[in-house]
Amino acid sequence: METTLTIRQSEIISLVRSNGFASVDSLSDQFAVTTQTIRRDINRLSELGLLRRVHGGVEVPANRGNITYKARKILNLEAKNAIAHSVAEYIGDGATLAFSIGTTPEIVAEALETHEGLKVFTNNMNVAIAALRNTSSEVTIAGGRLRHGDLDVLGSSAEGFFRSYKFDIGIFGVAGVDSDGTLLDFNEDEAAARQAILANCRQSFLVLDHSKFGRLAHVRAGFLSDVTRIFCEETPPASILSIIEKSSAELVICKQEPPL
C-alpha cells in the first residue's frame, strides 16, 4: 500500500470532515475525474479508517476514537514535515529531549538526524527507532508493556520514567485543541505521560497540524498557555490565536514547501 495520500485524497478528507458527507458524483464533478477514480480514493481512505464508505458516497467515521497510527502517519504529512524541520531549527547539539507518543513527534525525531550528541528519552518505540538513525544520539526508552498499534509504554512506569529526569525540551502532540484552548486526548494515560514531560522540562514544544483545532476528544490534557512554543503549519482559528496572544507561549508558523 502507498505510504502517502494524494493531494486529491487529502482534499476529500477535508471536504467530508467539513460537510459530514459527500457523494461520489459530487466529488467526481469537483475534481474532474471519473467516478471509478473517486471510488478507488474512497476505498483507500476507508481502509485507513480516515473516512467511512456508505451507499453513494463517503462520510465521517462513526467511531470518534483515534484512528490507527499507520493512518495518522500519512495524514497531513506535508504539514508534519514542515513542522518537524522548523522544530529542528530550535534544537541545539547536545540537547536533552523528552518525546511523547504521536506521529508528529516521530517525524520531528527523524528531522534531527544531523544533530550531534542528542540525549533522547521517550515512551514510544517509533520515536526511539527514528532517533537511533542518528548514530551520535543516545536513546533511552521507558520500560514496561508495549501497547499494540502505537508501540508505546503507558501508565505509572512511563510517568515515573519522565519524572526521573530534567529535560532541556519536551516535545509532544495532542489529539485535539478545543475552542477554549484546552488540549484534548483520547486516553487518560497518554495525557498523564504528557503532563509528566511538561512538569520536568525547561522548555515545552507542542507540535500539531491545523486539523487538530476543533477536533473532538474527551480527556483533558492541559492548556495551550502551558507550553513554551506552539508549532503549526497554518495560523490557528481566531479564537485560538487570541488565547495564544494573551499567553506567554510563542506561536511558530512552519512554512510548507510548495507542491511540485
Automatic annotation (TrEMBL):
PANTHER family, A to Z: GLYCEROL-3-PHOSPHATE REGULON REPRESSOR, HTH-TYPE TRANSCRIPTIONAL REGULATOR SRLR-RELATED
Keywords, alphabetical: DNA-binding, Repressor, Transcription, Transcription regulation
One Pfam family it belongs to: DeoRC
Source organism phylogeny: Bacteria, Pseudomonadati, Pseudomonadota, Alphaproteobacteria, Hyphomicrobiales
Superkingdom of origin: Bacteria
Gene Ontology MF term list: DNA binding; DNA-binding transcription factor activity
Domain HTH deoR-type: 5-60
Protein known as: Transcriptional regulator, DeoR family
